[in-house]
Amino acid sequence: RGGGAALLGFCAEEPDRARTCLVEALSAGPTARERRSETNRRLSELFAQPLRELRPSDRIAEVSAIALVGGFHELAYDPAARRPRARLPSVDAVVAVARLDSAPQR
Questions:
Q1: Among the four 1, 8, 13, 106, which has the fewest Cβ within 10 Å?
Q2: Of 65, 88, 90, nearest to 11 (Cα)?
Q3: Which pTM was predicted?
């Protein structure tokens, strides 16, 4: 929850920097794309930690974390590209989709 709130807060408070990270990095050359990939990997590792408590295996937690980071990027990409802050998803919406606040899945 804290990581999602931090990411969304960054996008809301620093829309130009968020645009650079989410939109422009894709066309800024191989170094920028590699840095973006590394950041996504690190975010996935961060999100995987609490997911390990909710998922039946470490591998499922890791894949869920990758999907969560990718989903976040997809949710934040359009607002970052167009810069309308009001369209950013709430952290509660992201947490609900990821089911980070629910009981373990069976």
A1: 106
A2: 88
A3: 0.65
Both tokens of 103, joined, read 């009981």
**How confident is the prediction along the chain (106 residues), in pLDDT tens digits per residue?**
666 677 777 777 888 888 888 888 888 889 988 988 898 899 899 889 888 888 889 999 999 899 888 888 777 777 777 766 556 666 666 656 555 555 444 4
Directed axis angle between helix 15-22 and helix 2-13, to 10°?
A: 110
The first and second tokens of residue 86, run together, are: 């009001």
Name the residue with tokens 């890791």.
62
DSSP secondary structure letter of residue 103: P
Long-range CB contacts for residues 68-72, cutoff 8 Å, separation at least 24 = 68/44, 68/94, 68/97, 68/98, 69/40, 69/43, 69/44, 70/40, 71/97, 71/98, 72/4, 72/7
Query: DSSP E strands: which ranges in 13-73?
Result: none
